[in-house]
Amino acid sequence: MERGGSQVALDKLTGEHSMLFIRSEQLFDLARTNSLWYISFGIACCAIEGLMSASGPRFDFDRSGVFFRNSPRQADVMIVAGTVNMKMADTVRRLYEQMPEPKWVVAMGACACTGGPFREYPNVVMGVDKIIPVDVYIPGCPPRPESVQYAFMELRKKIKAKTEERLAARRSRV
Question: All domains of the chain, ordered by start, with CATH?
């Protein structure tokens, strides 16, 4: 065996990028990506037609690690489904502020994204992004359950990209 060959094999097993020794931060990111807990702020028909059917037995969210939580203090993701009016804007913002960091927002349906067919009314907010930052938009009236699942896949990609960005920044400092 070449001199130092066993050291190389041991380094692959126990090196910085091995699965045997993973940083706790990387472990938390892995868990955060594969277990998204959402709070649903269902205001209108999108919550019933899109979100509830996506959580049903045919499209089973639980299988992919997406779980509903009743409390904003236990949720990672807020799904805003339906028309947000001026009266509800403070409640949406308050629920968002009660969520722990890191937190993400999904705007579901045409009403939550742009105001939908109720745009001409003065009390309708023209998109929930005027109140809180939105990470993923789901178009449609009502959106299909497949769209909701695709939105969660895109959100996972976004979380993984942020993790990689943070790790690359750490490597460049060292």
Answer: 34-173 (3.40.50.12280)
The residues with which 78 forms a beta bridge, in sequence order, are 39, 105
Structure-token pair, residue 141: 């009236």
Distance in angstroms (rounded) separating the CA atoms of residues 84 and 128:
7
- Token pair 């489904």 in the structure block, residue: 81
Angstrom distances, CA of residue 9 to CA of 5, 15, 17, 22: 7, 9, 13, 18
70: helix, coil or strand?
A: coil
Residue pLDDT, tens place only, 67-123? 677 778 888 889 888 888 899 999 999 999 998 888 899 998 888 888 888 888 888
Cross-strand partners of 166 = none
Q: What is the CA 20 to chain-centroid distance, rounded?
A: 28
Contact 102, 76 (CB under 8 A): yes
Q: What is the pTM of this model?
A: 0.77
Q: Which sign, positive or negative, has the C-alpha torsion 31, 133, 136, 73?
A: positive
